[in-house]
Design brief:
Layout: E1 8-12, H1 15-18, H2 31-38, H3 50-63, E2 68-72, H4 75-78, H5 88-103, E3 107-113, H6 119-123, H7 130-146, E4 152-157, H8 159-167, H9 180-203, E5 209-215, E6 219-221, H10 227-250, H11 255-267, H12 277-286, E7 292-296, E8 301-304, E9 311-313, E10 324-327, E11 331-334, H13 350-361, E12 369-374, H14 391-409, E13 414-420, E14 439-442, E15 447-450, H15 452-463
Helix pairs in contact: 3-5, 7-9, 8-9, 9-10, 9-12, 10-11, 10-12, 13-14
This protein binds 6-O-phosphono-beta-D-galactopyranose.
The site of 6-O-phosphono-beta-D-galactopyranose has 15 residues, from loops.
Length: 467
């Protein structure tokens, strides 16, 4: 089985996780800047110092056959407050970054929002607030016009995780727990903003392609023949995947999905979700105008019914077996015995990615798919040869690419794969010891060292053959 000649072999990054330089060149405050301070969290400086070292990272892409790079624009480098005055130094920086990538044949796929809402706007309700949505839309319009050298745009990265972690698990700023109503409002506010931007892009004939990157992981019943487990899995799927897929590809929410989401809301004492019909109109107009879907997928999940009190413990330390999540009206997540998992309790299950690719391919408006994030977080150290023998990662990536090939054979249209992450960077709620990169970053010296997986990927990108 071989990949086509135009398949993208990419690496993914996100501005806040790799750039560092959080106070440089006029950058405004991001919600995480304050959240990490207040919670004694991780220092986002210098991260992987990508703000200064992007040329070296792009040179590494060239050396290792990586022909695509996912980057995001930091909203507060362009509009330090999120709106109003433009910061020319930020604009200049991204022009330089895109130019260098394009000149070197490393095609940038640029995300407009990757978890880094400006501080004030996050405090004021993030995407639950129409004013914040409108500021984001203005920022997006500015970028689409200004950075005309970019031809691959994604509106958002992971609408569900961004919303659920702000308002249900409390692991992202503002760190609130079990606010199911805000979660659903945030999801909808982002899906609506996405639609407005896609319509603007098309109405103004902006050059290139535009899509959205969703976290899409498969949810299964803990016991296949237990109807309450089946329904629990379906409920989680409805809020995590159903809302996003239906809005993006059908411009509506189905009654079935709304029914399940409303069950979750009402069980937790909130009112039912009633989207504004004019928002739905906007989404309708956008649903056949997106050019690609980005799938981020790492794991799969098993569920059983749960109506008890809400409880969520995040395993952010890599101590295997400490994850626990039981969400009222939604599900209790069960980690089945016998399946491999990472130290952070993420089950490794490539079939989940296969099932998801085949499922989204059923949508008439799903024209093209990129796997925009997939990868394995590992605690790693450099060995005496100044490299990392990351055979586990190679195996993980190989198993996932195998199902990509199989899906394409069975009619799907996956055109690229971006490893999370290009080089090591810090993880939002797990810190610096959860490494994902092809390149080991010594965070003290900022030196990069190719891991064994980088050499393996180079061979793959050259031969197109999965071995
Ligand atoms: C996705 C995010 C990435 C990245 C990745 C790995 O949800 O889009 O930014 O962080 O997950 O997750 P983690 O850092 O929690 O291990």
């Amino acid at each position: 089985m071989k990949f086509s000649n135009d398949f993208i072999f990419g690496g993914a990054t996100a501005a806040y996780q790799c750039e560092g330089a959080t106070k440089e060149d006029g950058k405004g405050l991001v919600c995480w800047d304050v959240y990490y301070k207040e919670t004694d969290g991780y220092n986002p400086d210098p991260a992987s110092d990508f703000y200064h070292k992007y040329k070296e990272d792009i040179d590494n892409c060239v050396k290792f056959g990586i022909n695509g790079i996912r980057v995001s624009i930091a909203w507060t480098r362009i509009f330090p407050k999120g709106y109003g005055e433009i910061n020319e130094l930020g604009v200049k920086h991204y022009h330089e970054l895109f130019k260098y990538a394009i000149e070197n044949g490393v095609e940038p796929l640029v995300t407009l929002h990757h978890f880094d809402t400006p501080y004030e706007l996050n405090k004021n309700g993030d995407f639950t607030n129409r004013e914040v949505q409108n500021y984001f839309i203005e920022y997006a319009k500015f970028c689409l016009n200004e950075f005309s050298e970019v031809t691959h745009w994604a509106t958002f990265n992971e609408i569900w995780p961004w919303s659920v972690n702000q308002y249900i698990t409390g692991t992202f700023p503002p760190g609130e727990k079990y606010q199911y109503n805000k979660t659903v409002e945030c999801i909808h506010g982002m899906l609506y903003s996405h639609a407005v931007i896609v319509n603007y892009f098309n109405d103004n004939n902006i050059n290139g392609e535009i899509g959205v990157i969703h976290s899409l992981e498969s949810h299964y019943p803990y016991k296949k023949d237990d109807p309450s487990s089946v329904e629990a899995a379906n409920r989680v799927d409805a809020i995590a995947n159903g809302l996003a897929l239906e809005a993006s590809f059908e411009g509506k929410y189905s009654q079935e999905t709304l029914g399940r989401v409303n069950h979750i809301l009402v069980t937790n004492g909130f009112e039912e979700f009633n989207p504004d019909p004019s928002d739905i109109e906007e989404m309708k107009r956008a649903c056949d105008r997106i050019d690609f879907l980005g799938i981020n997928s790492y794991s799969a999940h098993w569920h059983k019914d749960y109506e008890g009190e809400n409880f969520h413990h995040h395993n952010g330390t890599g101590d295997r077996g400490t994850f626990k999540s039981a969400l009222k009206g939604m599900s209790e997540e069960i980690k089945p015995e016998g399946l491999p998992r990472t130290d952070w309790d993420w089950i490794i299950y490539p079939q989940g990615l296969y099932d998801m690719i085949m499922r989204v391919s059923e949508y008439e408006n799903c024209k093209k798919i990129y796997i925009t994030e997939n990868g394995m977080g590992i605690k790693e150290e450099l060995n005496e040869n100044n490299t990392v023998e990351d055979d586990q990662r190679i195996e993980y990536v190989k198993d996932h690419l195998e199902v990509v090939l199989k899906a394409n054979e069975n009619g799907a249209n996956v055109r690229g794969y971006y490893l999370w992450s290009l080089m090591d960077m810090f993880s939002w709620s797990n810190g610096y010891n959860k490494r994902y990169g092809f390149f080991f970053v010594d965070f003290d010296t900022q030196k990069r060292y190719p891991k064994k997986s980088a050499y393996w990927f180079k061979n793959l990108s050259e031969t197109k053959e999965l071995k």
